[in-house]
Design brief:
Layout: H1 2-10, E1 35-36, E2 43-46, E3 56-57, E4 64-65, E5 72-73, E6 88-97, E7 105-113, H2 133-142, H3 155-158, E8 167-171, H4 181-188, H5 190-204, E9 208-214, H6 218-227, E10 234-239, H7 248-256, E11 271-275, H8 276-288, E12 294-300, E13 308-313, H9 318-324, E14 336-337, E15 344-345, E16 359-361, H10 382-386, H11 393-402, H12 405-410, H13 421-425, H14 432-489, H15 494-522, H16 535-572, H17 583-603, H18 614-636, H19 663-672, H20 677-706, H21 716-723, H22 732-746, H23 750-795
Parallel strand pairs: 1-13, 8-9, 8-11, 9-10, 12-16
Antiparallel strand pairs: 2-7, 3-5, 4-6, 6-7, 12-13, 14-15, 14-16
Length: about 800
């Protein structure tokens, strides 16, 4: 500690790496006092003039404002307010071009001065020691003071540090060519600057205060020496002139010999640095309650007839300052905000002055290179030799052109202070600093996007966790509610019984819906569970059952009636012998009539009460055929005599049993009967009909023998219809003859064939009913199992 102070007192300082000695050109403005300018016609106040975010607007278009009135408020630590530089009216609030190398636009407040320059109410403080440290910090923050050396870092954050401070360094070097703003400020306001230094001393409590100033400012050095001669804690350090000795890390190296590592702030080493203009603004804010609304700006260059330093209100357009200093612009108007080394070209003359603006340079056309063409790097290495941050400028430039941002960060791009020394010595005229600035802006933009993405991810994770918590809470709530309902239902009360009934009914409805949906999906709509069937389906099933039972009853009645009729005929006329041709037809007609009567009795209806159906028509046709046949036989044989079985017939043929009568015998018997002319014609018709019926019967028998097994009979009406169906184009008599001939050809008694068919139909109906009953039983068992399983799950 003592060695550093001893070296400073002897005037021995350390040296930093690199650096250059460009022409100073300070003589253009260092011999003229600071000039006060009249109010401009319009002021453009950018909302953000520092590192960080802009404040929240407090004014609107059309509002009247006073000098020093805040236009925004600081809502976060890294925000600073801006104030009205004079009294006037808010004419507009919109985006406008601001002081930035890219010429971007930001939100600005437009003020039209009223010329009265009226102040808001201020509270002057004669002794800052009467204020607490927090009150002083709040005054600095409300004044909107930021670092005026070019960085624009909020001052109230730098002065509100609690760690022990070894050195408070006041930067008065002002090493860049042309700029003399700090030089003139020190000359004219040294006492106010020292007041600001004392306030900083009161806040930070440093061990030593070092004022670093280059030896090319003798008048400013003398003014500071006189102002601090009674302030033992302050050490005035006059350092050699070398660019960029005014850089933060470079000045720390020169005064203390300490290297600030990459990525480390000087506060970590116990060092705080403030600009000389910032000290003046702190004194104005704390003692006079004056916010930062103006600053000293060097307006210089050979294109100006009256270059000088001026007090410029923040928001003053560049064009107005140039007019006040006698700007004589040519065809190639080239304006620079800042010095020639670290400044940037302006896209417009309407750019406003901001808190970090210390110089406005207007060079002559002869000072600007005509053709500044970039050529390939020759790898001379001069840029690396003069770099004060000990970087590799050529590699940085290659990575910047390739947009290799990870490599740029490995090469410590952000340690570059944009001093421009590398570009100044480059023989290839490569604008290295411009590449670095663009790369820094792009990296910062990517970092902002990554930060936003990270915040969005955090919000998503928080939302997901919240939804999970809400889901668990709902499940727990439902579980408790279900347990409460179950407990209430288990109580022996009427309410519990009604609740159980409601639950059972709901479960039954659910099961019914499931069963109906399953039946529809599998296509088994005809096999519907009786517990879940609709009224229409139930009625259809009942109707089918009644039809089957009715068919079985009719078949039994017909069989019994046929047997009774046969027995009665045998008892009443044993001596009468019927021919084979007439006996089957008679029996068929009688059985048919008895079956119809039995069916009428079963149905409880008479023939007069309902219209004739197909079977009744067939029966009527058979009856008519029978009558015709009998009348023909009576006309042919007027007095039949009983014939003994042993007596030969008129034809001379041996007697045969009626059951074994063949077709030939029937034909010969009919041919031998004596008939008259009328009877012979009828007999011929009957024989022709019988022959036709025989042929059709034989063809049907052959077809049935070749076809598949007999089709399933759904009802008794279908079986009877198939037995008595007429052939197309035949009359009622022909139908009777066809039925008789088919019976004769088959060689079986008509009642035996009928009984066999009825028995087959009954057996098929029984089998089908049994299958349906088994299917219904299975469905009932399945439904009962599902109900039991559902009840078991509910009880659990």
């Amino acid at each position: 500690m003592e060695s550093v102070i001893e070296r400073i007192e002897r005037g021995h300082f350390w040296k930093f790496h690199g650096g250059i000695h460009p022409p100073e050109q300070k003589f253009l403005t260092n011999d003229k006092p600071i000039r006060h300018l009249p109010l401009p016609k319009q002021l453009i106040i950018p909302v953000r003039q520092h590192i960080g975010n802009g404040g929240e607007l407090l004014v609107a278009v059309g509002d009247k404002v006073l000098k020093g009135q805040p236009l925004t408020q600081n809502s976060a630590p890294m925000t600073l307010p801006v104030h009205a530089p004079t009294s006037g009216t808010i004419t507009d609030i919109k985006d406008s071009v601001v002081a930035h190398p890219s010429g971007l636009s930001e939100l600005c407040v437009f003020i039209a001065p009223d010329g009265e320059d009226r102040w808001r109410e201020r509270q002057v403080c004669d002794d800052f020691h009467e204020l607490s440290r927090q009150e002083i910090v709040k005054k600095i923050a409300r004044a909107g003071i930021a670092g005026m050396g070019g960085a624009g870092f909020p001052t109230h954050i730098k002065v509100n540090n609690k760690p022990e401070i070894n050195y408070l360094i006041i930067n008065a070097a002002e090493c860049e060519p042309y700029i003399t703003a700090d030089d003139l400020l020190i000359r004219e306001h040294s006492e106010a600057i020292v007041d600001g230094i004392k306030i900083l001393d009161h806040l930070l409590l440093p061990a030593f205060i070092l004022i670093g100033i280059e030896d090319n400012k003798p008048e400013a050095i003398e003014a500071l020496r006189q102002a601090t001669k009674n302030y033992d804690k302050v050490k005035l350090c006059v350092i050699p002139t070398k660019y960029p000795a005014g850089g933060e890390k470079q000045l720390i190296k020169v005064l203390t010999g300490q290297e600030v590592p990459s990525g480390i702030l000087p506060i970590s080493l116990g060092i705080v640095m403030q600009n000389i203009a910032t000290c003046f603004a702190i004194a104005e804010a704390v003692l006079n309650d004056t916010p930062l609304i103006r600053r000293v700006v060097t307006v210089s260059g050979r294109a100006l007839s009256k270059p000088r330093n001026v007090w410029a209100l923040l928001g003053t357009p560049v064009e107005y300052l140039l007019e006040q200093c006698g700007y004589q612009g040519g065809k190639r108007r080239h304006l620079i905000m800042g010095g020639p080394m670290m400044g940037f070209s302006l896209p417009s003359t309407q750019v406003p002055i901001v808190k970090i603006t210390n110089c406005l340079l207007a060079p002559e056309e002869s000072e600007i290179p005509a053709d500044n063409k970039e050529v390939e790097c020759i790898r001379c290495g001069q840029c690396a030799e003069v770099c004060p941050s000990q970087l590799l400028p050529q590699e940085l430039q290659w990575s910047a052109k390739a947009k290799d941002y990870p490599q740029l960060q490995k090469l410590n791009l952000f340690d570059c202070i944009d001093c421009g020394a590398c570009a100044y010595v480059c023989p290839s005229q490569i604008p290295l600093v411009q590449y670095y600035r663009v790369a820094k802006a792009e990296i910062r933009q990517l970092q902002v996007q990554e930060l936003k993405a990270e915040k969005a991810k955090d919000r998503f994770e928080a939302r997901k966790a919240r939804l999970e918590r809400e889901k668990k809470a709902r499940e727990e709530k439902h579980k408790k509610a279900a347990e409460a309902r179950r407990a209430a239902m288990n109580k022996p009360t009427e309410e519990a019984q009604s609740a159980k009934s409601a639950v059972a009914a709901a479960l039954a409805r659910v099961k019914a819906k499931k069963a109906q949906a399953g039946n529809e999906a599998t296509g088994k709509s005809d096999e519907v569970n009786t517990n879940t069937a609709t009224p229409a389906v139930s009625s259809q099933v009942a109707e089918q059952k009644s039809q089957v039972a009715a068919a079985i009853a009719r078949a039994k009645a017909k069989k019994q009636a046929a047997k009774a009729e046969q027995k009665q005929e045998q008892e009443q006329a044993p001596e009468q012998v019927l021919t084979p041709a007439t006996e089957p037809a008679k029996e068929k007609a009688e059985r048919q009539s008895q079956a119809e009567a039995s069916e009428e009795r079963d149905n409880g209806e008479s023939a007069e009460d309902k219209p004739l159906d197909k079977k009744q028509k067939i029966a009527a046709a058979i009856a008519r055929a029978k009558a015709k046949k009998l009348s023909a036989q009576k006309s042919a044989e007027p007095a039949p005599e009983p014939i003994d079985a042993s007596t030969p017939s008129d034809l001379g043929q041996p007697p045969k049993e009626p059951a074994k009568t063949t077709d030939a015998a029937v034909d010969s018997a009919q041919a031998s009967e004596p008939v008259d002319s009328a009877g012979s014609s009828k007999q011929d018709k009957i024989q022709a009909a019988v022959a036709k019926a025989k042929e059709k019967a034989r063809a049907k028998a052959k077809a049935k023998a070749k076809s598949a097994p007999e089709a399933e009979v759904g009802s008794d009406e279908q079986n009877l219809d198939s037995e008595t169906e007429q052939a197309p184009g035949t009359s009622d008599g022909e139908a009777a003859e066809q039925q008789e001939s088919s019976t004769v050809d088959s060689g079986q008694a008509p009642q035996d064939e009928k009984a066999q068919r009825i028995a087959a139909a009954v057996s098929k109906a029984k089998a089908k009913a049994k299958a349906k009953a088994e299917a219904k039983a299975k469905e009932k068992a399945k439904a009962a199992a599902e109900a039991k399983e559902q009840q078991h799950l509910e009880s659990e």
